[in-house]
Design goal:
alpha/beta; 2 domains; two-stranded parallel sheet; 12% strand; binds zinc ion
Length: 336
């Protein structure tokens, strides 16, 4: 993005935010925010996954701002208010993170601990979720974009890792792992070279519960559930619940669909497995009457919430999470 465009974005955000106090004050309902990782911008995690990361400094300021303008509540409390109707009189926010990234957990605890972490339980055994492994592999060995495309019957090599990973998301997890074996072998990629400590350990999940963090489930292997056979999808949904419950000695009642991917059948499986809520990646406010298995959630990452100098901007953050920025943008198409 050009500097000028970033500067204009900042100016517009400041102007709209300061002219319209009701953007925050007049809001009602429950906002569920979706983070992934909190890591410094120089960290390898940030460089590999800029759209999943927030820096510690921005995260701290976001939490302080949220505590001043919203009630920060747990997922249990959000569920209760949605069911009993009191959500319509609330201006509340639930802070969540997907996958079980360790940096988010550590920073969430230091800013009060009232967060929900949806853990893909493969990480507890030290295994990185498949999309993380693939990105590392394709970043280190971009020439693999060609044989991977060939294996998948594409005529042209994938132009970049993003495109390749989007294509892999259309496959079931068994096929993704089969491709991993053959493609990673082709580059002599050593799994031992994958980073450690990026995700929560068993011990950290146990500690998190003691520190007031709610643990939810996010499947075992992070598959796109609509692309799996129903038996496998059900097993992913049930097994992650079972693992986390035995680890924490607490009921695990909340679920997040990997990549937000769900349909009526998947929703039914999540109900059958015994969860009481499930979150998607469709943005918006949650109000009474909302389907508790299709809760809306707003993605948060660094670039969406900083000004043109890269510093936390409460105007950008407020407009982003309340959905106001999307409205401003649609009126000003020039922003792109
Ligand atoms: Zn995820």
């Amino acid at each position: 993005m050009s500097r000028l465009r970033a500067f204009i974005k900042s100016l517009i955000a400041e102007f709209v935010y300061h002219r319209r106090a009701e953007i925050v004050q007049g809001c009602h309902g429950i906002l569920i925010l979706m983070y992934h990782e909190v890591a410094p911008s120089k960290d390898a995690r940030f460089r590999l996954f800029p759209v999943l990361c927030t820096t510690p400094e921005t995260f701290r300021q976001q939490m302080e701002w949220l505590q001043r303008h919203f009630e920060v509540i747990s997922m249990d409390e959000a569920e209760k208010r949605l069911r009993d109707g009191s959500a319509k009189d609330s201006r509340a926010v639930v802070v969540t993170s997907d996958d079980g990234w360790a940096g988010f957990y550590q920073h969430a605890v230091s800013s009060g601990g009232r967060a929900t972490v949806y853990v893909a339980t493969c990480v507890l055994g030290g295994q990185l979720p498949w999309y993380v492994r693939w990105r590392i592999l394709l970043k280190e060995h971009p020439y693999l974009l060609k044989p991977l495309a060939h294996e998948l019957g594409e005529f042209e090599p994938f132009p970049n890792a993003d495109t390749a990973i989007s294509r892999l998301k259309l496959l079931d997890i068994a096929r993704i792992e089969q491709l991993w074996k053959s493609i990673a072998k082709e580059s002599n990629f050593q799994s031992e070279r994958l980073p450690e400590g990026w995700f929560m350990s068993r011990e950290q999940v146990r500690q998190a519960v003691e520190q007031g963090v709610t643990i939810g489930a996010h499947t075992v292997n992070h598959p796109q559930l609509t692309h799996e056979l129903p038996d496998i999808a059900l097993e992913e949904v049930k097994e992650s619940k079972r693992i986390l419950e035995s680890l924490t000695a607490q009921p695990v009642m909340h679920f997040a669909y990997p990549n937000g991917d769900h349909n009526d059948k998947v929703v039914q499986l999540v109900k059958e497995a015994g969860y009481s809520t499930a979150v998607t990646t469709l943005p918006g406010w949650n109000l009474p009457g909302e389907d508790p298995y299709r809760l809306k959630r707003v993605d948060v990452h660094e670039a969406a919430c900083v000004d043109h100098r890269g510093r936390f901007s409460e105007a950008r953050f407020a407009l982003w999470i309340t959905g106001e920025w999307a409205r401003v943008k649609s009126r000003l198409r020039v922003l792109g």
